[in-house]
Amino acid sequence: MIFSDKLNQNISQNQSLLFVGLDPNPEMMPGRYSSEDIIDGLWDWLQFIIAETADFVCAYKPTLGFYEALGIPGLQLLQKTLAAIPSHIPIILDAKHSDLNTSTIFAKTVFTQWGVDAITLSPYTGQDHVAPFLVYPDKAVFILCSTSNPGAEALQQYPTRESPLYLQVVQESKNWGTPEQLGLEVGTTDAEVLARIRQVAPERIIMARSIWAEGGNLSRILEVGLNTDGNGLLIPVPQDMLASANLSHEIQSLRSEINQVRDITLRDVSSCSVWLPDVSTVKQHPLHDLILQLYDIDCIMFGNFVQASGAVFPYYIDLRKIISNPQVFNQVLSGYENIVKNLTFDRLAGIPYGSLPTATGLALRLNCPMIFPRKEVKAHGTRRLIEGNFHPGEVVVVVDDILISGKSVMEGADKLKSAGLNVHDIVVFIDHEQGVKDKLQANGYRGHAVLTISEITSVLHQAGRINDEQFLALTAE
């Protein structure tokens, strides 16, 4: 199970956004656990914390530094602590790892040997540092983008408060991994810092820190930190609460308080639109946010564009850009997946060249084999028309990006059929409409589309991204 699913399952099951720091800090250890052997005392305390909180939290977060400070016995204590955590509860190792040279071996150790589900990383060395951790598709990383200690302000607020470094970290890290694999760690006592980060990264899980400092406002933290579904924000259990002999009772009370504020916040937020105040969220298109993101990153442009067919359209759609934007690419794949998973087939086939990345990502998601028909047959080597392994008689679903005339996708499907494969379904991301699906059906294919051009133009017009003149030009097509 991937980290995000495991986390969401526990949030739902325990009705909790709380996570617990499992930190063997001798200075915080209650006196009742005093022992001649400090490791024994810490172990008893950690066992108590796990037993008292397992039914009321969504995750545990052991801090590696506390265990390292205790030497070899501390690392042995870490192993025992990890083993004591119920297997269904995700573990986020707070490592703040930042060394580029040891990233690969450290990722292997924490994910395959220690069995943790996620890790915190420092962003300063960039994507090169994070990449070795992202090769584990069922794991996740949290990028540290903000801390609350006063000494960090000069760096994190640089060069100006209007355009601070911590927001640049958020913006850049969004390109390193999908929302399922990459979250953000935000330590702050200022709810407005959290609000700015949520605005830049509405799709990311945020692990909050330092929110219980004097003057903190839980209602405001939840208001600005939760995503539109009322999730996406992990709240720490106050460290001093973990010393309480009545921990179970106190954490349940805290959970209830958070959930009450969360419910009120959600009711308030639901009365207005996320994007523009004149957009009704009640009748909002299910892919509303994705459509706007595609427009904002110039995958959808307006003007007079000559298409491959020679026709001139008042718009141009370039889905090749999505491969450079992981969070958008991830949402596009989800759109395809919702259609393809309900079809019967043996293999997926992408049409060169635009849909090959999409078909590859979809094949990985669905754990199914992929092939593709060549655009041209090489004059050397095997001279194969179809790349990949297959057996005649198998059923293939064809994946393409946009359906304008249907010519290229049917040519690809015909190549597959000439090799003895069966093609019944063609799935595209955008259908230009104009009766192209009927044309496919007349040639023996069922056409499916994640979106139609009329749905896209309607959302863009409703959200104010295009004006009345552009909307009328598009709908006149």
Automatic annotation (TrEMBL):
Cofactor: Mg(2+)
Taxonomic superkingdom: Bacteria
GO molecular function terms noted in the UniProt entry: orotate phosphoribosyltransferase activity; orotidine-5'-phosphate decarboxylase activity
EC number: 2.4.2.10
InterPro entries per the UniProt record, alphabetical: Aldolase_TIM, OMPdecase_type-2, OMPdeCOase_dom, OPRT, Or_phspho_trans_dom, PRTase-like, PRTase_dom, RibuloseP-bd_barrel
Catalysed conversion reaction: orotidine 5'-phosphate + H(+) = UMP + CO2; orotidine 5'-phosphate + diphosphate = orotate + 5-phospho-alpha-D-ribose 1-diphosphate
Binding site for 5-phospho-alpha-D-ribose 1-diphosphate: R374, K375, K378, H380, D400, D401, I402, L403, I404, S405, G406, K407, S408
Residues in Orotidine 5'-phosphate decarboxylase domain copies: 17-224
Pfam families for this protein: OMPdecase (PF00215), Pribosyltran (PF00156)
Pathway membership: Pyrimidine metabolism; UMP biosynthesis via de novo pathway; UMP from orotate: step 2/2; Pyrimidine metabolism; UMP biosynthesis via de novo pathway; UMP from orotate: step 1/2
Keywords on record: Decarboxylase, Glycosyltransferase, Lyase, Magnesium, Pyrimidine biosynthesis, Transferase
HAMAP family, alphabetized: PyrE (MF_01208)
Job description of the protein: Catalyzes the transfer of a ribosyl phosphate group from 5-phosphoribose 1-diphosphate to orotate, leading to the formation of orotidine monophosphate (OMP).
Family per similarity comment: Belongs to the purine/pyrimidine phosphoribosyltransferase family. PyrE subfamily.
The protein's assembly and partners: Homodimer.
The protein's name in its UniProt record: Orotate phosphoribosyltransferase
UniProt organism field: Nostoc parmelioides FACHB-3921
Primary gene name: pyrE
